[in-house]
Amino acid sequence: xxxxxxxxxxxxxxxxxxxxxxxxxxxxxxxxxxxxxxxxxxxxxxxxxxxxxxxxxxxxxxxxxxxxxxxxxxxxxxxxxxxxxxxxxxxxxx
Length: 94
Hints:
- 11% of the residues lie in helices and 48% in strands.
- The protein has 1 helix and 6 strands.
């Protein structure tokens, strides 16, 4: 039983910390709000929902769901990124 729990835990992807510096070119599980940054980037995601909000927080630049097929959005400088549904995400530099 303990071995099964350990195996299941090792299968869970590492979760990205939304408050830490951006991790690039690495798939991680995420859920939460990513603060805006000075540089543009691309967010690729699968199995969840992503919303890119403009600087004013009210306006939405892009949003959408992705299943197993990867989807990508451009995140301009100083835009927020919301990740919902424990999506798998990867940031790349623009």
